[in-house]
C-alpha cells in the first residue's frame, strides 16, 4: 500500500520541480528590462515599475519607453487626485493651501506634457531619419518639462514655517512621480540613441 502512494507522490514532486524550474527561467523581456533600467537614474525603481509589463514590452525599446511614460502618467494622475483631496482638508494654513494649489497646477502641467509625449512617441514608430528625430525631440522636451514641473511643485513649501506632515506627504508623492518620470526620460533618451 505504501509503495502505491509513494509512486504518485514521486511523480507529483518531479512535475512540481520541473514546473518551478520552467517558471523561474529568466525571460528575454526581463533581461531586456533589467539591462535597459541599468542606465536609468533609479534602476531598482525602474525595474520594479516596468517588470509587471514584461509580456507587453518584450524586447522592444519603443514599447519600453511608451510603458515607462504610461507608468509616469499613472503616478501623476494619482498624485493629482491626492493633491485635490489634500486641498480640501480642514485645518490647513492659508500658506499650505496656496502651496498645494500651486503644486497641483505644476502636476496638471506635468500630466499634460506626459500625455503629449506619449502621443508623439506613437509617431516615432513609423518615422525615419529627420522626421523621427523631430518627433523624438518633442518627446524629450515634453518629458523633461514634465520633470521640471514636478520638481518645481515643492518650491511653495520652502522655509521653516512649512515644515511638517503636509510638506512631508506632498514631498513623498512628488518624489515618487518625479523618480518614475526621470526614469522614463532616461529610457526615451536611450531609445532615441539606438534608433
Automatic annotation (TrEMBL):
Protein name (database record): Uncharacterized protein
